[in-house]
Amino acid sequence: MNENITKRNDLLAEQVIKGLKSRNMSGYYAKSKEEALQKALELIPEGATVTMGGAMSAHEIGLVQALKDGNYNFIDRDQEADKRAAMLAAYDADVFLSSANAITNDGVMINIDGNANRVSAIAQGPKKVVFIVGMNKVCNDVDGALKRARNVAATVNAQRFGLVTPCTKTGTCMNCKSPDTICCQFLITRFSRHEGRIHVILVNDNLGF
Fold first, then answer.
1. Which of 5, 106, 108, 195 has CB atoms 3.0–4.6 Å from 19's, for a disulfide?
2. pLDDT tens track for 158-168
3. Span of 80-84, 125-129, 201-205 with lowest mean pLDDT
4. Residue 208 located in a structural domain
5. Does the residue 154 lie in any domain?
6. What is the mean pLDDT of residues 23-35?
7. Range 35-39, long-range pairs (CB < 8 A, 24+ positions)
8. Tell me: the pLDDT tens digits for 32-47?
């Protein structure tokens, strides 16, 4: 990471963490992927039942592999024969892993989902939710965060999954109602009523989409 960008991220992360605290959520800043992995493992006790909602960022910092290799009950929906059962198990999990499609500089998170298993688990169910969020996802305000979520995260994911949607051809959200759309459910997380439930690890790196 460029030194000047790191300095900017250091200052911006302080602002985001302050915003998260005001919203009853916990924020942390990791200078590297390695630090992010260490912090995540500190937040996840051994023996915990852990599942996730397809967060590429958790893969990128090595967290998914560490959970598979460690003393955890990690439910990998992609490896389960009954994917519906694996998704439903998330609601009673000790820890749910996610990322954010975007986050504002005062701590509001935006997530878009197709099947809604991810956004519903973020909103309710798991005892603890741990977000891994690259600093590339920080936006000035909710409007900017929504635009990022729709035009960057959703578009890239639609292309990645080979879906038949207008955005896979145009590279930008067309506000479609295509059968393949993944922009079905929008979740704005602006406050947590449950102290100690939501934890956000900001990473000085470009992670996810």
1. 106
2. 999 999 999 99
3. 80-84
4. no
5. yes
6. 98
7. 35/203, 36/61, 36/63, 36/132, 36/201, 36/203, 36/205, 37/61, 37/62, 37/63, 37/66, 39/201
8. 999 999 999 999 999 9
Write the CATH number for 42. Answer: 3.40.50.10420
Q: Is residue 101 part of a domain?
A: yes
The total number of structural domains in the chain stands at 1
Note whether residue 209 is domain-resident.
Answer: no
Residue 181, class by beta-carbon neighbours within 10 Å (0-12 exposed, 13-18 middle, 19+ buried)? buried
Tokens of 115: 């099947």
Question: CA-to-CA distance for 151 and 199, rounded, in angstroms?
Answer: 26
Query: pTM of the prediction?
Result: 0.96
Angstrom distances, CA of residue 122 to CA of 24, 31, 188: 15, 25, 10
Q: Do 198 and 100 form a contact (C-beta atoms < 8 A)?
A: no
